[in-house]
Q: What sequence folds into this?
């Protein structure tokens, strides 16, 4: 099938890019929060926090761009998705707020640091789980009738969505472990290597199970993955994941510092591409296409002008902040 690249499709790719940027950039600090209870109180926890302290606030800019862009550009999809997934999305946002407060007060209220550590770890875990459940519920399909959500209050809560939620928790923890490998040294780096070696098989196993189950959720998924001639292009995704898996295990065995993190990011990207293969050109899988959900063309053009200015600025200051704070993190207090 041939698709015309119009304004709605361009915006779909912009929002997809924003969501992926959020998953990558906020994923590793959520992963650090998930791993936080396993780190030693004191130097290890302080160093882990300092490794993300200069950049973590800006990471969630992409979540705002993705959600705000969806509202402005695909209002129909925004209304349907929010109606169907209200509970996990609200839980995710509350957990992110809770985690952010704990992150700041951990340094400013040292007398209750243990409480803030628990809040930081709990908020990170709940946010990651809610994001995965949201993804799983979206993949399994949303019932739509007459341009409105027609399902029940708990349709999002299924074994598949919960499994995807757990898979995202494991994957974020893996990303956090490889980030610590790259940004720390000494005992904390050794600790991160041990975590990464345990989490890598779990992450790959979760990718395999979710990928194997997805084509059976919707007939359209099966056709997009296995119908000729699209299967020739789609088959490259699992092939590249297999190659990336081998390289990841090798890099961990050889104790490379940067390669595990970069290879984990590559696996995230390939999973995201696989998600695109499954749902494109739908924006609400099996129910609403990109073209059906799009706002009027004048609105798309107006918002695109703003995005053309803002996105390069966001990319520039993000790249600059990561460059300025490159290198190994210390354990001194964050202010």
A:
């Amino acid at each position: 099938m041939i698709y015309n690249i119009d304004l709605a499709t361009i915006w779909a790719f912009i929002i997809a890019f924003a969501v992926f940027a959020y998953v990558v950039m906020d994923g590793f600090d959520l992963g650090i929060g998930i791993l936080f209870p396993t780190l030693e109180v004191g130097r290890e926890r302080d160093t882990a926090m300092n490794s993300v302290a200069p950049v973590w606030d800006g990471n969630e800019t992409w979540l705002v761009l993705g959600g705000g862009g969806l509202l402005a550009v695909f209002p129909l999809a925004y209304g349907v998705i929010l109606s169907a997934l209200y509970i996990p999305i609200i839980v995710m946002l509350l957990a992110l707020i809770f985690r952010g407060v704990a992150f700041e007060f951990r340094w400013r209220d040292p007398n209750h640091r243990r409480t803030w550590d628990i809040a930081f770890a709990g908020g990170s875990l709940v946010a990651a789980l809610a994001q995965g459940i949201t993804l799983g519920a979206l993949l399994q399909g949303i019932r739509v009738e007459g341009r409105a959500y027609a399902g029940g209050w708990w349709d999002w809560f299924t074994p598949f969505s919960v499994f995807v939620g757990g898979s995202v928790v494991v994957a974020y923890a893996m990303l956090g472990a490889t980030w610590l490998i790259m940004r720390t040294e000494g005992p904390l780096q050794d600790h991160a290597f041990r975590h990464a070696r345990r989490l890598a098989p779990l992450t790959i196993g979760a990718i395999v199970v979710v990928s194997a189950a997805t084509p059976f959720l919707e007939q359209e998924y099966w056709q997009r993955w296995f119908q000729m001639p699209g299967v020739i292009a789609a088959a490259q995704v699992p092939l590249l994941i297999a190659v990336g898996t081998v390289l990841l295990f090798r890099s961990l065995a050889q104790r490379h510092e940067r390669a595990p993190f970069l290879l984990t990011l590559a696996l995230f990207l390939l999973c995201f591409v696989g998600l695109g293969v499954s749902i494109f050109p739908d924006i609400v899988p099996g129910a609403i296409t990109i073209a059906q959900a799009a706002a009027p063309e004048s609105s798309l053009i107006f918002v695109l002008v703003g995005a053309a200015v803002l996105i390069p600025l966001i990319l520039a200051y993000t790249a600059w902040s990561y460059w300025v704070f490159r290198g190994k993190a210390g354990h001194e207090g964050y202010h």
